[in-house]
Every structure is written in structure tokens, then in C-alpha cells.
Amino acid sequence: MKKGLTVVFIVLVIVLGYVAVHALTAPVKLSAAQLGGQLIHSNKKGIDCLACHTIGKKGGNVGPDLSKEGTLKHSVKWIEVQIATPAKHFKMGQMVKISGKSYMAIMPDHKMLSKKELFDLASYLDSLK
Ligand code: HEC
């Protein structure tokens, strides 16, 4: 191989290698629902949902099963309000019926969560069908 060609070849390999590594290591942008899914299964402060709610196979039964929350036709906004301030929907201490089952309305406020966290969590629950 001629010297000039060899140099061109090496430069090409370096450039392509750089592009490939960059493409593989670039951060993938997650949707709000995906971020909410990660958050709800994390141990972050204020994320206590699974103590009372079942999602999939994991969780408690003090509150309704949220595995199919998206089929209940609540808006994302409604779910955000529910998470931050449940008493705006259900009077504390009263018996409420949700999807045919009775619950004592005792869900706590989650005012420590940011607007973005509320939106991500609500988007995630809305996606569960
Ligand atoms: C101490 C138990 C408890 C915890 C912790 C809890 N919930 Fe609840 N949740 C309930 C109960 C009980 C209800 C029934 C209504 C109420 O209490 O407001 C409820 C209702 C809901 C509903 C409304 C379901 C519907 O469609 O009517 C959503 C959505 C919800 N919870 C999401 C969450 C999320 C997300 C978290 C965590 C950030 C969470 N809950 C933490 C007990 C809890």
C-alpha cells in the first residue's frame, strides 16, 4: 500500500471509531413515563407507593392496585393532584370505592416531590394498561 493511502486509511479508522464510540455511549433520552417507572421503584425519599399499592406483582394492598391505572381514564393532571394532595379527591378517613373495592382513604400527601417528579410518576401510572 502507498504511504499516502495508509495515512488516509488510518485517519478513516480513527474517525469512524470515534463516531461509533460516541453513538454507543451517548445518553438515551427517557420518556416521562420511563423516568416515572424508574422513580417509583427507587428508594428515593417520599417514594413510598409500593408500601400501600401493588404494581405488577410487588407491593401492598392498603390502597388500590395501580397495575392498570391507565385504563381508569383519569387525566395525568388528576393523578398528579392525587399523588401530591389526595384529600382534594378523597376525604381523609372515609371509605371510598375504587374499581369495585372499598378502601379507607388514608393516602398521605407527597408535597416533597418536585413538579417534574409528579409529572413523571403520573405519566408512568397513566401508561399502565
Ligand atoms: C399509606 C398508604 C399509601 C401510600 C404510601 C400511597 N398511597 Fe396511593 N392510595 C392509598 C389509598 C388508601 C388510596 C385511596 C384513596 C385515597 O386514600 O386518597 C390511594 C389512591 C391512589 C390513587 C388513585 C387511584 C384511583 O384511580 O382512584 C393513585 C393514583 C395513587 N394512590 C398513587 C400513589 C402513588 C404514586 C404513591 C407514591 C408516591 C402513593 N399512592 C402512596 C394509599 C397509599
Provide a descriptive summary of the structure in words.
The structure is a single chain. The chain is 45% helix and 9% strand. With 129 residues, the chain is mainly α. The strands form two sheets. Strands 1-2 form a two-stranded antiparallel sheet. Strands 3-4 form a two-stranded antiparallel ribbon. The mean pLDDT is 94. Heme C binds at residues 47-49, 51-53, 62-64, 66, 69, 72, 74, 79, 82-83, 86, 90, 96, 98, 103, 105-108, 110, 121, 125.
Break the fold down into its secondary structure elements and pairings.
Elements: H1 3-25, H2 32-40, H3 49-52, E1 54-55, E2 58-59, H4 76-84, E3 95-98, E4 101-104, H5 115-127
Antiparallel strand pairs: 1-2, 3-4
Helix pairs in contact: 2-5, 4-5
Bound molecules: heme C.
Heme C is lined by residues 47-49, 51-53, 62-64, 66, 69, 72, 74, 79, 82-83, 86, 90, 96, 98, 103, 105-108, 110, 121, 125.
Summarize the structure.
The chain has 129 residues and is mainly alpha-helical. The chain has helices spanning 3-25, 32-40, 49-52, 76-84, 115-127, and strands at 54-55, 58-59, 95-98, 101-104.
Distance between the termini: 61 Å
- CATH topology: the name is Cytochrome Bc1 Complex, Chain D, domain 2
Strand content: 5-15%
Give the proportion of residues in helices: 40-55%
**Architecture, CATH level 2?**
Orthogonal Bundle
Shape: rod-shaped
The whole-number mean of residue pLDDT values reads 94
Say which molecules are bound, naming each kind only once.
heme C
Helix and strand sequence: HHHEEHEEH
Tally of domains: 1
Sheet with the most strands, sense and barrel status? 2 strands, antiparallel
Q: Which radius of gyration do the C-alpha atoms yield? A: 24 Å
Q: What's the total number of strands?
A: 4
CATH superfamily: Cytochrome c-like domain
Q: Give the helix/strand class.
A: mainly alpha
CATH class identity:
Mainly Alpha
Pick out the low-confidence regions.
Answer: none
Order of adjacent strands in the largest pleated sheet: 1-2
